[in-house]
Design a protein that fits this description.
Helix 10 runs parallel beside helix 14. Strand 10 and strand 11 form a beta hairpin. This protein has 405 residues and is α+β, with helices and mostly antiparallel strands. The mean pLDDT is 95. Strands 1-2-8-5-3 form a 5-stranded mixed sheet. Strands 4-12-9 form a 3-stranded antiparallel sheet. Strands 6-7 form a two-stranded antiparallel sheet. It binds protoporphyrin IX containing FE. Protoporphyrin IX containing FE binds next to helix 10 and helix 14.
């Protein structure tokens, strides 16, 4: 077992992710103590689960490893007491099952097929409008723009106000201690989220009074499991859908560009064989791993990889580590568009909470890369990225790029 003095006191330190310096710490834990106990941290004691197979065990045993809001929720930091925002990612069955079922049809294969043309059209317009031979921010002009448009469509939210969705997503996940945080206190965060609830509440009233339509607000307003949520759960579920549909895909759009700039041989392979694009997308999502961790709380005494996990213990599944586990995949530090079983990464989680929007995210990324390749855009990175100060979302706030004319 590693001497804990040599390890960072806390793998939840957001600086590890802003500086992108987390890899060696997790590699060492996977090798030497894959289920590791941290007796103290700013978030209290917790277990770090760092290997793919052990993460799977936790994911698939939701009876032992709970997501419940009242036990602290799904992040290493407990929710602020009295300001808990329950939502279906922070619930166990049976409520989780019923609420997830209320919104899942929006990403059913038939609806995805209906949306493909619209997504392609918008992607073409966004790419067509980019400057040539001039530096611009890829995150703002492409990743945020495309994901905001998508989310506005899913909610049937006014397109003209779509950047409000991006803003609320940033507010919901902001680490208030970051120098560049969009909100500087929990009170400010809650005020912004209440404002969001006010605007969404107006749309909700209209949709509840009208016959059911095929958008997320109408679906929730008409479903038994979601039609009468208390305010904190209303805010919680909207924040979940906004962050889920926005932040993760946005960061995969940026992370993918960075990965391919670092691996021009892989880009050349996909240019030569476009049928590799779906593989490319899965490898990008594994490589980026936009959600750093999910946390569970043990509901009973359990055993994991020979360790005794006590009832009430906080258990953190580090997806960034599971997706770099040498015991689960060959050469995980290689970006490989021809990786076998490339979809079997952990970036979407697993089990009953596995990302509901996985196929939509993959489709958005597939179309983006198909359209970039179709136009033969030569995109160069023109400066360092600014990464997010967060232990939860592996985000990129800005990335200067230039398209060679
Ligand atoms: C590359 C993009 C995405 C990544 C990496 C991602 C990642 C994740 C992860 C790790 C989870 C938790 C899984 C678990 O606990 O086992 C999750 C859940 C969820 N995601 Fe995503 N996500 C992405 C895109 C999306 C999109 C586009 C949407 C919405 C349209 C979405 C909505 C959700 C929701 C609602 C949940 C909660 C599911 C539940 O608790 O049953 N996500 N996602």
């Amino acid at each position: 077992m590693p001497n804990s003095a040599d390890l960072p006191r806390d793998l939840g330190d957001p600086r590890l992710y802003r500086e992108d310096s987390w890899r060696p710490h997790f590699a060492r834990l996977r090798r030497e103590d894959p289920v590791h106990y941290h007796p103290e941290s700013p978030y209290g004691p917790y277990w770090s689960v760092t290997r793919y197979a052990d993460i799977m065990k936790v994911e698939l045993d939701h009876g032992t490893y709970s997501s419940a809001s009242q036990l602290g929720g799904i992040q290493i930091a407990d929710q602020p007491q009295g300001e808990e925002l329950p939502n279906f990612i922070r619930m166990d069955p049976p409520r989780h099952t019923a609420q997830r079922k209320a919104v899942a049809p929006i990403v059913a294969p038939s609806n995805l097929a209906n949306m493909e043309g619209l997504i392609r059209e918008r992607t073409a317009v966004v790419l067509g409008g980019l400057p040539r031979g001039e530096t611009f921010d890829w995150v703002d002009r492409v990743s945020s723009e495309l994901t905001a448009m998508m989310l506005a469509t899913l909610f049937d939210f006014p397109q003209a106000d779509r950047r409000k969705l991006t803003h609320w997503s940033d507010v919901a996940i902001a680490n208030i201690e970051a120098e560049d945080a969009v909100v500087k206190s929990q009170a400010e965060r809650m005020a912004e989220l209440r404002q969001m609830a006010g605007i969404m509440g107006e749309l909700w009233k209209e949709r509840a009074a009208a016959p059911p339509k095929f958008d997320l607000i109408s679906m929730m307003a008409h479903a038994e499991a979601t039609r009468a949520m208390p305010l904190n759960e209303f805010i919680g579920n909207f924040a979940l859908l906004i962050v889920g549909g926005n932040d993760t895909t946005r960061n995969s759009m940026t992370g993918g560009l960075m990965a391919l700039a670092e691996h021009p041989d892989q880009l050349a392979r996909v240019r030569a064989d476009r049928s590799l694009v779906p593989n490319l997308v899965s490898e990008i999502i594994r490589w980026q791993t936009p959600v750093i961790h999910m946390r569970r709380t043990a509901t009973r005494d359990a055993e994991l990889a020979g360790k005794a996990i006590a009832k009430g213990a906080k258990v953190v599944m580090w997806y960034v580590s599971g997706n770099r586990d040498e015991a689960a995949m060959a050469e995980p530090e290689r970006f490989d568009v021809e990786r076998p079983k490339v979809r079997q990464h952990l970036a979407f989680g697993a089990g009953i909470h596995r990302c509901v929007g996985d196929r939509l995210a993959e489709m958005q990324l597939r179309i983006l890369w198909e359209e970039i390749l179709a136009r033969d855009l030569r995109i160069e990175i023109a400066g360092p990225p600014v990464r997010l100060y967060s232990n939860f979302i592996r985000g990129i706030r800005s990335l200067p790029v230039v398209i060679r004319a």
